[in-house]
Each structure stands twice: as structure tokens, then as C-alpha cells.
Design a protein that fits this description.
Elements (H helix, E strand, L loop, with lengths): L12 E4 L3 H10 L1 H13 L1 E4 L14 H11 L18 H17 L1
């Protein structure tokens, strides 16, 4: 299952609405409200995202999930400058030339 809120792909977690302590309290004091509250809790179980708790998980093979997977795979280009290589680590010839230039300068001095 895929969570459109946080992008998690995981098995959903089942969560029961309501409070266990309120259920126990109602059972101890009053039988009828305890039964009603227990039935309500049993019928309102929801499958939620294990990471963010959102109740709107969708199947991983749905069109919306597949579209999100494809969008995550494609690199986004912000401008034409982002594709140019300017790092010295990416261009070892520039770094090597600069090191050689520094050696010559220190040797000449």
C-alpha cells in the first residue's frame, strides 16, 4: 500500500478508535453504555499508514501511486546551469593542473 501523504510504501497498521480506559470504565459502571461503546470501537477499526498515521492509503498498483513512483524516479532540472559540471572533484584534470601550478610556484620561491 502507498501513502500519498508521506510517500511510504508499507503494510497498513490497524488502529481501533476510542480509548480502552473509557471502555473499561463504562463496563465497570454501566453495562449498556459499555456494550454500546465496545461495539462502536469494534466497528470503527481503520487501516492507517504506519509512519504518519494517515487513514487514506491506496494500493501500490493504482494509477496515482504509479504516477508518484515515476515522478520520484525522474530527475528534476531546475535550470540549464544545473547540468554543467563545475566541481573540481568531477574534473580531475583541472584539480591536477592547479596542484602542478602550486608546486611550480613553491619550488620557484
Amino acid at each position: 500500500m502507498y501513502c500519498p501523504n508521506c510517500g511510504t510504501v508499507a503494510k497498513p497498521k490497524k488502529v481501533t478508535k476510542g480509548s480502552f480506559l473509557i471502555e473499561v470504565f463504562l463496563w465497570l459502571l454501566f453495562i449498556i453504555p459499555g456494550v454500546i461503546y465496545s461495539l462502536w470501537r469494534l466497528t470503527t477499526k481503520a487501516e492507517v499508514c504506519p509512519k504518519c498515521g494517515a487513514p487514506n492509503m491506496i494500493p501500490s498498483d493504482s494509477p496515482k501511486a504509479l504516477q508518484a513512483f515515476n515522478a520520484a524516479k525522474k530527475p528534476r532540472r531546475t535550470s540549464s546551469r544545473s547540468t554543467r559540471v563545475t566541481s573540481r572533484m568531477a574534473r580531475p584534470d583541472i584539480a591536477r593542473d592547479e596542484r602542478a601550478k602550486k608546486k611550480k610556484e613553491t619550488a620557484a620561491a
